[in-house]
Amino acid sequence: MTNKFTLLFFICSVLLMSGCQQESSSSSSVKNNASELGHVYTYQKQTLEAPLLDPASCVDYTRSCKIEELPFITMSYPNPQIADVMTRVVVSHDWMGQRFQSLLAVMPNEILTLLGSVTAIVIADNIRPSFYWTGSGAIYLDPASLWLTNAEKDTINQAPDYRNGFSSGLSYDFFHRFVKNGQSAYQYYSLTSNTERTIDDIIIPMASLLFHELAHANDFMPSTLMPSLIADKPLWSEINRFSNIQLSEKLKQGYPISDNTLKAHAAVLYLGQAATEDQKSQSADYLGLLMQQEGANHLYAYSHQAEDVAMLFQATMLNYYYGIEMDSAFVIKPETDNPTCADYIIAWGQRNRIADATSKPRAQFVSQQILTNIDLTDFFNQLGEAQYFPALSNWCSNQLSAPVVTNKNAERAKPTRLLNIRKDHHHGAITAFQ
Predict the structure, then answer these.
(1) What b/e readout covers 159-170, taking b as 16+ CB neighbours within 10 angstroms?
(2) Which residues are within 8 A (CB) of 191 and not within 5 positions of it... i.e. 6 or more apart?
(3) Where does residue 429 rank: exposed (0-12), middle (13-18), buried (19+ CB within 10 A)?
(4) How close are the terminal C-alpha atoms of the chain, in Å?
(5) pLDDT of 251-295, one tens digit each?
(6) Which pTM value belongs to this model?
(7) Which of 123-137, 187-201, 321-335, 408-422 shows the lowest per-residue confidence on average (mean pLDDT)?
(8) Sign of dihedral through CA atoms 335, 341, 342, 348?
């Protein structure tokens, strides 16, 4: 009983989520598979002793490693290059490491700098969804964003994201997607189809994912704090020691989002809390108007202050490096049992919300704090304006000039399956501090 209590206390200490009640958070960790990594191995031979020679000892929940055992990458390599980062890659299959290395070569160099704030990159067939965990200082990547061939795809666990059903019972859902020049910024590819893809097809989705997870890593442990770390202390306790001066706390104090109704709905939609009868009756347009008054660019930001940081940074970096904008919307759930995206009607939505007057200063603050070596002033000055979607347009239409929908039958000529919507809804937005 004592050991069980000790383990639970440790998990609760490092989750950094608002509630750790009895064993609910520990069971959540199992769903993220961070305790099921006995089959992973270091991608390449390197000199670092345990824990990476026995990687599960530091990247799952079995024990807490000290800083000196598994230092942050920047502590070992002050100016990390691709070869340096690859010494910290842990995989379940070789192709995952090969693909990650190839992607680093075609992504912005700042990704390497951001990776300096992680201890390891874990890519395994059973990780879904991707996440960052303060207990290890590592990021855990779902290989669904990495495969190119059917053979690679066949090695991946095809279980759906366990949070897909969290909106059940609500009258709305919250969707987001990334667009460029009014068109989808990338194509969705299913794990269950026979379609293959090229590396060009995965650059944007993986960049989106990395910007999100590495925002967490640099929030909780920026390189500026690393000289103050105590080498023989557990990593999670050193991260917690600086919790009052971390970026997410600075954002909360300087640019707060405080609507309790949205926080409660985010807990339902992203943390799995049961919806109340009052929440089930609240409409998409009502919630949209609440969000319009504050500066978050995604409902997920209300689930934890660190997600506020990550969503702002993710949207900003995709726009800065690739000219991609994010659409965010509260949509009315259709009554049909077999919906397509044309059945999802937008009650409130914006394109490029980080350009909105309520969101822009928050996005600029976050991004400049993380990327201190780049002056983003001109970028934000030239960002343009956020644009609203026409009331009652449907999610199928990427065009902001779309007319009000009066006959959905015409829109169903080229239906988009709900699975595609769900993938874009959750990609790069589900993160657990586990």
Answers:
(1) eebebeebbeeb
(2) 144, 153, 156, 158
(3) buried
(4) 22
(5) 999 999 999 999 999 999 988 899 999 999 999 999 999 999 999
(6) 0.87
(7) 408-422
(8) positive
**Pick from 129, 25, 127, 159: which is nearest to 431 by CA?**
129
Q: Is the pLDDT of residue 12 over 80?
A: no
Q: What is the pLDDT of residues 166-184, one digit of tens each?
A: 767 899 999 999 999 989 9
Q: How does DSSP classify residue 417?
A: B
Q: Is the pLDDT of residue 339 over 90?
A: no
Residue whose pair of structure tokens reads 């049961």 in the numeric block: 274
Cβ contact 85:119 at 8 Å: no
Other C-beta atoms closer than 10 Å to the C-beta of 345 total 19
Give yes or no for a contact between 190 and 419, defined as CB atoms under 8 angstroms apart: yes
Whether the Cβ atoms of residue 170 and residue 275 lie closer than 8 Å to each other: yes
Check: CB of residue 86 under 8 Å from CB of residue 44.
yes
Q: Could you tell me if 191 and 153 are in contact, meaning their C-beta atoms sit under 8 angstroms apart?
A: yes
DSSP, collapsed to helix, strand or coil, labels residue 31 as helix
Contact 334, 167 (CB under 8 A): no
- Structure tokens given for 142: 């779902």
Q: Which helix (H) or strand (E) holds 364?
A: helix 360-370
Indicate the angle between helix axes 284-292 and 260-271, nearest 10 degrees. 120
Cβ neighbours of residue 89 closer than 8 Å, sequence gap 6 or more: 42, 43, 44, 97, 100, 101, 120, 121, 123
- Return the exposure string of 203-222: e unless at least 16 CB atoms fall within 10 Å of the residue's CB, then b: bbbbbbbbbbbbbbbbbbbb
Give pLDDT, residue 27: 33
Stretch 52-77: mean pLDDT:
80
Q: How many CB atoms lie within 10 A of CB 138?
A: 26
pLDDT, residue 151, reads 97
Q: What are phi and psi of 421, to 5 degrees?
A: -65, -45
pLDDT digits (tens, 9 = 90+) for 202-222: 999 999 999 999 999 999 999
Closest CA to 309 of 362, 349, 353: 362
State both tokens at 48.
Answer: 């670092």
- Concatenating the DSSP letter of every residue in 380-410 gives HHT----EEPPTT-BTT---TTPPPPS-HHH
Helix (H) or strand (E) holding 210: helix 203-220
Structure tokens at 235: 């990593």
338 Cβ neighbours under 8 A, 6+ residues apart: none
Check residue 58 and give its pLDDT.
81
Which residue in the block uniquely carries the two structure tokens 């009331």?
Answer: 391
